[in-house]
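Onboarding guide, step 5: your first structure request.
Type a short instruction followed by the sequence, for example:

Predict the 3D structure of this protein.
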Amino acid sequence: MAVRHPFSRRQFVGGVAATIGALGLRPETELFAQGQTAQFTGGEAEYDAFVKLASNENNYGPPPSVMKAMNDAWKYANRYGYPDGNIVQVIADHHGVKRENVLLTAGSGEGLDVMATTYLGPGKKVLGVSPSYASVFQQASNVKADSIQVPLTKEYRQNISAMIETTNRHAREIGFVYMCNPNNPTGAVVTAKEVKDLLDNIPKDMPVLIDEAYHHFVDDPAYGTAIPYVLEGRQVVVARTFSKIAALAAMRIGYSIAPAEMVREMNVYASNSVNVLAKWGAVASLKDKAAEADVKAKIVDMRNKTTKVLESWGYPVIPSQANFFMVSLGERQVQGVIEEFRKMGILVGRPFPPMLNHLRVSVGTPEDMEKFMTAFKKIFPQKAAAATRG
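The system replies with structure tokens like these:
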């Protein structure tokens, strides 16, 4: 059954306003941009002292190859027209598509906003699940459109059969279907078979946006990227970012892979504002496969180790395929717990209604996660070990 707006944006923002204030953040700042949270307004030393596990960042930072490429690009900082490493062609070659299939964006968040601006408007709706990454739903509201949000299943997975049924029932109203895969905030994946089922059972001309911001951290063989559907000519847009695996969150660079005609339509609304350092850093990151594999291995290993410790302490964790996970707090509500962690020098994720007794935690370095577990065990008493879920 489809449910539209199980919680309003006003309720959501109100629910986290106190938390934002406690963290020294500006509540008026955009909450949903991919890879961004509200801006920290304290001093540099205060910010640097926190263990940052709130925003799904890559705490290892950019690899040496990426740093070198960005530093070498400073010589172009005073130019309007400059060599950019042929970034669009490098992305196209990386995915086996043509240049006209690539839309360069300021983070994948801009790609999501541009999609909403292009294909929505008064009388139109975007269909997705709840909770999920809310940027698209917010942008729908910004352009006077609406959203249909299907609840997750009892296993916290995206309900594909309900999405298919609801899309077909409301096809004339829906501008596009949105899927975050792996999903944020749960970290759960939609399998390749489920993606195929969705695409094969909704109208063939229905645009589908698949946000693969966390694609690089998946090790589930049942998962598959949706980029091959673009090569087939399907109305599929795949959003990617360099914010996570390449650790370029603050540099704001991402891209969308889509049919050429859709790229042309969306490009009308794109800012074309990606800076020179970000472009050269992104090129280097795509070429440095060893660095990518290394950081993936570290993050996945730390994700698995930390979730096992939490389970053994008695707190179930939703199986995650991303660089974050959600742990059940039992009867505790997230908002007060966030402040307790903050007092111990650790920033953890914001509330995600209606899952207000689940805490989203980004995966950091071994030192970060050791500090997190030390704090967790001080805040939460040990219980009988939770059953591990595969």
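Each response can be followed by summary notes, for example: The longest strand covers residues 174-180.
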